[in-house]
Design goal:
This protein is an alpha/beta fold and about 500 residues long. It contains 18 helices and 20 strands. The strands form four sheets. Strands 3-2-4-1-5 form a five-stranded parallel β-sheet, sandwiched between helices. Strands 6-7-10-8-9 form a five-stranded mixed β-sheet, with helices on both faces. Strands 12-11-18-19-20 form a five-stranded parallel β-sheet. Bound molecules: S-adenosyl-L-homocysteine.
Length: about 500
């Protein structure tokens, strides 16, 4: 049998899109991914959906694998002919046990490639605005493990050199030993008031920075209850200008924002939140169920080109429709000369992903208004119109178009079913006030959410509510929910703009 191949890949410091292009590429080709504890699980989206994923933390006592177990597993998968990606946090060659794993592969005659990653110390520097080699302060950097700092026994660390070092020292794995690290540096001649900084969860929306001096940093971290993973920076650059900390200044930085769409919609939304520094909390309340195997849909598809206008009212409708078209071996030519209308820019943008530029895109949010505008735009008398939408859409649009003299076929391409998931953790977060925002992008997600979460928990004043538009806000108000912001532009970006605006002008921080 053909032997497999192993890619040892640096996952980057945390945030998923800080992986290298090469890293993402080889993930795409992987049959099997062995994922390290520090590698962001969100990276697995770069892998195919049939890729086998194994999480292999190597801490003893967690009922988990030792380094030997991991080595054996990698070899076993590769000998079975698989393309294996071993995904490690940061860079695999910086405190990453790379040589252990590669030596074993060599012995087994298995080919490998090492893909570098942004090591945590470098990612931290960019995201906390701590310039490791600031020309005015430091001409040298040392990466040191803080793991070996305890006890007076033999250590591979040159504490005497470190104590006299005038550059920047970055300690990995140091937070548990911070007392000993600072003490040893001071014992070896470093001044007690040398600037010191600690960055935890670097590059994540949960990033924290603590700054103090060498003799107070440990106490300060205990007081602020900072937890691992964290890096310790010692040297003049640690006393950096807070203005350079661009990441933590983002208006949504650290905000815990609940997304209540379907799973696929949540992923896009989550990326946009991360982009603005926020922490997306995914709670899928609805499941999009295609209805494209119905006879009605299949018959409609066969005569698409006979329509004068085809109308899409949501991104979900577009996606479900085109997936079905593709499965039947067809493409957008099935539209023939029919014109296409899309309600809202979000729907129109989805259409362009499938190669269709909509002929008419009213920025409206009710069926009635869309109908009115379309009648104003084109003479619909005796025209054949096809609506491709959700099974639970209101009848308003059909009525307006029919009144305008059009012949309307209304065909369901999907329906939104409620999705029940474990909600106890979310209820707890809402009660404790650790959640900043709950967002709603459709009336069905409102229903799905409050089918599981008590309205009182949201009306407590501890959390704010954001809605994508008046229809969704209307549904919330019917349930007695106070809506804090309704997006002026009814897209996910519009929703986030509205939240950002509220945070800037009336934020809690
Ligand atoms: N190979 C990794 C380091 C592994 S050692 C790399 O190149 O980054 C594990 C240590 O890395 C942790 O104890 C912590 O000190 C540091 N670390 C990793 N990710 C981190 C993060 N997102 N924020 C702060 N420290 C991190």
């Amino acid at each position: 049998m053909k032997k497999g191949f192993v890619y040892l890949v640096g996952a980057g410091p945390g945030r998923a899109d800080l992986i290298t292009v090469r890293g993402a590429e080889v993930l795409k080709a992987a049959d099997c991914v062995l994922c390290d504890k520090l590698a962001n699980p969100a990276l697995l989206r770069f892998a195919g959906k049939d890729t086998e994923v194994l999480h292999v933390p190597k801490r003893i006592g967690e009922g988990s694998s030792t380094q030997d177990d991991i080595n054996r597993l990698i070899v076993e998968k590769a000998l079975a002919g698989k393309t294996v990606v071993r995904l490690k946090g940061g860079d695999p060659c910086i405190f990453g046990r790379a040589s252990d794993e590669l030596t074993v592969l060599n012995e087994a005659g298995i080919g490998f490639e090492v893909v570098p990653g942004v090591t945590a110390g470098v990612g931290m520097a960019a995201y906390a605005g701590i310039m490791l080699t600031d020309k005015n302060h430091s001409s040298q950097v040392m990466f040191v493990t803080g793991h070996e700092a305890t006890g007076k026994q033999h250590t591979a660390i040159d504490w005497d050199v470190l104590g006299k070092f005038s550059g920047t020292i970055v300690f990995y794995m140091g937070i548990g030993n911070l007392d000993s690290i600072t003490q040893r540096l001071i014992e070896n001649g470093m001044s007690e008031d040398t600037p010191a900084g600690l960055v935890a969860n670097a590059t994540f929306p949960t990033q924290r920075v603590v700054k103090a001096s060498l003799n107070t940093i440990s106490e300060e971290c205990k007081r602020q209850k900072v937890e691992s993973p964290a890096l310790v920076v010692i040297g003049a650059v640690a006393n950096s200008d807070d203005q350079l900390n661009w990441f933590m200044k983002k208006p949504l930085f650290g905000r815990n924002i609940v997304i209540t769409r379907d799973v696929a919609g949540n992923i896009d939304f989550a990326d946009k939140i991360i982009d603005r520094g926020g922490n997306p909390i995914q709670f899928a309340t609805i499941k999009i169920k295609p209805m494209t195997d119905s006879n009605e849909f299949l018959l409609t598809l066969a005569k698409l080109s006979q329509y004068d206008w085809i109308i899409f009212t949501s991104g979900n409708g577009v996606t479900t429709f085109f997936y079905a078209l593709e499965e039947l071996g067809k493409d957008a030519r099935a539209f023939g000369s029919a014109k296409v209308a899309a309600i809202g820019r979000m729907t129109a943008n989805k259409l362009t992903e499938f190669g269709i530029r909509a002929d008419f895109v009213p920025d409206v949010f009710t069926g009635r208004e869309l109908g009115r505008q379309l009648i104003g735009f084109a003479n619909l008398h005796d025209k054949k119109i096809l609506l491709l939408r959700s099974a639970i859409a209101s009848n308003e649009l059909v009525e307006v178009l029919t009144d305008g003299g059009a012949q309307v076929d209304n065909v369901a391409v999907y329906t939104a079913a409620e999705e029940k998931s474990d909600s106890a953790w979310l209820a707890e977060g809402l009660a404790e006030g650790t959640i900043d925002w709950v967002t709603f992008a459709s009336p069905s997600s409102v229903d799905g959410f409050f089918g599981q979460i008590d309205t009182d928990l949201v009306n407590s004043g501890k959390v704010k509510v954001a809605s994508i538009g008046p229809v969704t806000s209307g549904r919330l108000e019917e349930l007695g929910i106070a809506v804090d912001v309704t997006a002026a532009e009814h897209t996910i970006d519009g929703l986030l703009n509205a939240i950002e605006h509220e945070e800037i002008h009336n934020g809690f921080s």
